[in-house]
Design brief:
- The protein has 330 residues and is of the alpha+beta class.
- The protein has nine helices and 14 strands.
- The protein has helices at residues 91-108, 110-115, 134-147, 210-230, 236-246, 250-255, 281-294, 307-322, 324-327, and strands at 2-6, 21-22, 28-29, 47-49, 56-58, 63-67, 155-160, 165-166, 172-173, 182-185, 188-194, 197-203, 258-264, 269-275.
- The strands form six sheets. Strands 7-12-11 form a three-stranded mixed β-sheet, with helices on one face. A three-stranded mixed β-sheet has the order 10-14-13, with no helix packed on it.
- A hairpin with a 5-residue loop joins strand 8 (165-166) and strand 9 (172-173).
- Helix 1 packs across helix 7 (281-294), helix 3 crosses helix 4 and helix 7 packs across helix 8 (307-322).
- It is globular, with a radius of gyration of 24 Å.
Length: 330
Amino acid sequence: MSTTRIRCPKCDWEPIAHPIWMCSCSHRWNTFDTAGQCPACGKTWKDTQCLSCHNFSPHIDWYETVETPKPKDKEKFVWFWQKNDKPPITEDDRLWIEENLLWLVELFTPEVFLSMKTVTPDKQYFDRNFTGTEEDVEFILKKVAAIMNIKPWEIQLMFFSDMPTKFSAGIVATPAKELKGGWTSKGSELLDKGFGNKEIWISMGQMNDPIGLIATIATELAKYKLQSEYAIDDDVDIVADIAAMVYGFGIFKGNSYFKFAQWQGNTRHGWQMQKRSGLPEPIIAYIMAWLAYHSNEDTGWKQYLNKTMEKHFEQCYKYIEENWEKVKWE
C-alpha cells in the first residue's frame, strides 16, 4: 500500500495545509490543493518555491510516493498509570499559548512565520570566544538583530550595574534600598528616548553569561520590533517573550529562565535572583514544541536543552503529535 507525500525536493521540508502561496493576481491559497493552478485566475505554476530553503523546484517534483508499512497485528498494552498523554501545562495555558501564536502568525504573515528556524548555541550562529566584554554584547546584539531583520544602528546599547559593591572595610552596598536577604534584578530595559531614539540597557552582571545575554537581547529586540513595526504596546513584555521564541530563541529562553547567585563580604552576605522570562519553563517548552511541529522542523537541536527543559519539550511534542486534531493550525 502506498501514499503520496508532499515535500521540497531540495531540503525535504513538508508544507502544512494552509493558504501560504500567492499568485501574481494576489490570490492566496495552498498550491498543492490544486496541483499548482490558481483558483482565482486559472494560472498554472510550473515551479514552486520552498518556504524553508527558498529554492524553486518543478511543482511535479514535490510529490513522492511512499510505501505505507503494514499495521501491527496487536498494539502493545499500556497500563493507565504508564500513560502520559497530557502536557506539563494546563488546558487554559495551552489555549492561551496557541491563541497568541496564531495571532503572531497573522501579524508576521505565514510565509515569514514558517521560514524561521531554531537558533542553536554553537558556531553556526555565534562563532566567537566570549570573555565577558562590552564587545561581546555588541556582537550578540548585531547577530540577533540580523536574524530578526533589524538594523543594529537603530538601537543604542547601554550598560548598568546591579551587582553589590564591595568597599575596603568589607561593607557591601547593593542597589536595593532595604536588603532582606536578596533582591530581584530585571537584567535589561528597552527605553524610548523620543524622536525615534531607542536604547537597550543591559545589566553588567550578565556579561559573563552569553546564553542569558542572547535570551535577554532577543526579548528586548522582539519588543522593539513589535512596538516600532507593528505598533503593539498592550502586554508587550509577554508577547515579546513569545515573539523571541518565534524568531528561534527558545533554547536560550528555556536554558536561562532564571539565574541564582550569592555574594559575601567580611560581615554580610546575600543573594541575587535574576529572572529572564515572564514565562515558566513548561510554557516555553510547549511554545517550542508547537513551533517545531507546525514547521516540520528537525528537533535534533533539543540536545542543547538542559535536562528539565528537554523533558518538558518531549512531553509537549508527544502531546501535540497524539492530539494533532486539537492543536492543528487551521
